[in-house]
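User: structure tokens for this one?
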Amino acid sequence: MNLDPSLDLVLERTLNAPKDLLFQCWTQERHLPHFFVPRPHSVTHCKLDPRVGGVFETTFNVDGTEMQNNGVYLEVIENEKLVFTDGYTEGWKPAPDPFMTAIVLFEDAGGGRTKYTAIARHRSTEKAETHKAMGFFDGWGTVATQLEDYARGLME
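Assistant:
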């Protein structure tokens, strides 16, 4: 994948859970709220339709403020890759102020582990810098840890 360090923020981790389980966590409404935003923030609404053009809608509660994140899936490869964006909403309606396109990759790392890569692509260096200043690496890193913990709990 051709990455542009001025536009793309990348988080890579090896998670101690199998990639098919992590993929399920990312694509099923009953799982996503358990890890998707760093605690103590929470997901108050989640609607997922993991197919090209299907909705990826979440609402977060951040310190009492509701934040909507509406988008669509652009690519779905079961147990391997998810691409979604807030550049469009359901029915391919262009969003008024898109922020990013996310790419989440799941690769077998052996021993029941997964190489997990999360990429946030932005339209401009200003948006990428804003995302970095908002705490992309800490926030998405915390989400990766929460995802791993949640998935491991499902394995018990």
